[in-house]
Amino acid sequence: MVRFTDVFKSYENGTKALRGVSFEIADGEFAFLVGPSGSGKTTIIKLLTGEIAPTDGKIIVNDYDLTTIKFSKMPYMRRTLGVVFQDYRLIEDKTVFENVAFAMRVVGASGKEIRRRVPYVLELVGLDTRTRRRPQELSGGEQQRVAIARALVNNPRLIIADEPTGNLDPARSLEIMMLLQKINELGTTVLVVTHEKELVESFSKRVIAIDGGKIISDGMGGYYNYER
Amino acid sequence: MKGNRFVYYVREGINSIFNHGFMSFASVCIIVACLIIMGSFTLLALNVDKMIDSMENENEIMAFVDDSYTTEEAQAMKPYIESIDNVSSVFFVTREQAWKDFLDTYSDPGRLGEFGPETLRDRYVIYVDDISVIADTRDAVSRVAGVADTSVHLDIAKTLVKIRNIVTIASIALVAILFTISLFIMSNTVKLTTFERRDEIAIMKMVGATSTFIRWPFVVQGLILGLLGSLISFVMEWGLYILFSDKLMAGAGLSLLTVIPFSSVSIPIFIAFTAVGLGVGVIGSLLAIKNYLKV
Q1: Of A101, A88, A94, which is closest to residue A134 (Cα–Cα)?
Q2: CATH class for the region spanning B60-152
Q3: CA–CA min distance A49, chain B (Å)
Q4: Is the reported ipTM for this assembly greater than 0.85?
Q5: Mean per-residue pLDDT for B247-253?
Q6: CA-closest candidate to residue B59, choices B155, B148, B123, B141
Q7: Residues of chain B with pLDDT > 70: what percent?
Q8: Where do the domains of chain A lie, and which CATH numbers do they carry?
Q9: What is the pTM of this model?
Q10: Which residues in chain A are contacts of B200 at CB distance < 8 A?
Q11: Where does chain B hold its CATH 3.30.70.3040 domain(s)?
């Protein structure tokens, strides 16, 4: 569950990225966060992952209060999240299997758990035949699937996908979105951050639109009302 | 620490050493160079200290007893002299013994004619613990009843103290400078590694790795490089010391010099090298990784 309550964020250079943002995403929900460049989407992601702290307001993510959380507790909060980026952020010298296993290893999973869980997740994202390949040997869509598998492997409560289709053609983009929808149907909360209007409109999901650091609309498909 | 984690840390640390082979090699070389210079200067300081110690033992205060004192009265002064601060040992020399010693060093005793032991005084030969305050000790000895005069080579004492102070200060300064240089180089080596792996570190943070988990492989890397550097430098220092001490001892005109055998300082040197190597490795790594763990 995610709850933003009257969140403000100003950067040291004076930029006011968020001006009183409030929204809530319930467990098991699928939501889009949309808005033009500079609207505050990236700031919201950084706040959700604990990379930055809000200037004011309150943020709850999976029962962790990010406004009061201790630095030592941050890794444990992050283990409840899975983050997918536009540029995949895979480790080039590791195979597909190792990239996914890596995420489990760093949270202390045993070898046995890794050998059991990683093949299952790779099968879920349709990469069970590519386990020994390295990222550069895969297509963009496949690399993004590896990133999704890595985000998913520790069984997070919330998946945050930051422009997950930004580097993909329309067909691959649709595949990725279908995969995220499938993951959501299995019980994981999914938040997709994007500015791709067509993609958002092709799914009948909740859309939170942000512009100028403020929520300008929040509702089911069709609330993608800004033009830029 | 779980066993599989320990294995992971060690494996990642070793992998990192080989993946950044040139920088690892450079780090070990710098540690070796710094340790050898540090070690050589320390050994030099130890040897100088030992030589000064032996020279200090030769540096004595001569206290001449008043002519009016009988030998028995003169001998009775000994406890008073022994009770003075900084006095390590006191030897009474009768005028007869002093005359005999004088004749032993004189090339033509026949020319001394009617002179005899009565020309000289009974005396005390006094050795001190700390040569730097020998003048104060001499003054205290002068105040003992029955002491007519004293003699001491203050200029030699001052020179020895000055040499010892210079060598000590230079050693400490050099060790501190070289330790800092080693730390800087090691830190930069690991920093380069962490820079190359910054994306990996960011991913680790993103998926919930603790700072300890991220830090350990780099610490292991520094630890191994530091240990390797210290072992190599210890062996090289050993060889160089034996080579130079043999040459020094064999050198003409230097037969009076005594050199501390390496075996008698090898354990402290080994411990010091290992401690410095490990310290440089671990502290350097921790400094390098610090900035990447702030998020």
Answers
A1: A94
A2: alpha beta
A3: 7
A4: no
A5: 68
A6: B155
A7: 93
A8: 1-80+158-163+191-228 (3.40.50.300)
A9: 0.68
A10: 91
A11: 60-152
